[in-house]
Design a protein that fits this description.
This protein has about 150 residues and is α+β, with helices and mostly antiparallel strands. The chain is built from three helices and five strands; from the N terminus they run H-H-E-H-E-E-E-E.
Length: about 150
């Protein structure tokens, strides 16, 4: 039985809508078309983290350049996995979508933990104000050297 995370039917429907929007954007993205992400990501207030960038991307213009120069017409994959999507609500107008993305593309092998922070706009639409695509690197850290904490 799947755990129900939503407080009411409106949250459940909104979550399904946000997951569907993201999935459609990924379908295009994985075939070299970043147009839906260009529409989904806020032009007014946007930040982006990705292991491919040394610093946080702080403007829509910079992320649009990334889409134009790296993704559009260039990225290709036969299939991908969009795993474990979940939406959490901070309020009725702020939602966080998390999921995992796995794909073998012509540019690289993708294994990402993804976070999209959605904000409802005045017209009722949703836009992403922050996006993180973090490469999954399990056990890269050596946990055997964690210092013991003394409890007082």
């Amino acid at each position: 039985m799947k755990q129900e995370w939503y407080k009411n039917e409106e949250e459940r429907q909104t979550a399904e809508c946000l997951i569907d929007i993201e999935h459609k954007a990924l379908d295009k993205f994985m075939n070299g078309d970043g147009a839906l992400y260009a529409e989904l990501w806020s032009k007014d207030s946007f930040t982006y983290h990705d292991d491919g960038f040394a610093d946080r991307v702080d403007t829509y213009e910079d992320i649009k350049n990334f889409l134009d120069n790296v993704v559009n017409g260039k990225l290709k994959t036969e299939s991908y996995e969009f795993k474990n999507p979940r939406v959490q609500f901070a309020s009725k107008d702020v939602a966080v979508l998390t999921f995992q993305l796995f794909a073998v593309t012509n540019l690289n092998d993708m294994r990402y933990n993804c976070v999209e922070v959605f904000v409802r706009q005045a017209d009722g639409s949703w836009q992403v104000i922050h996006s993180t695509w973090a490469v999954i690197r399990p056990f890269e850290m050596d946990f055997s050297k964690i210092r013991q904490q003394q409890v007082v």
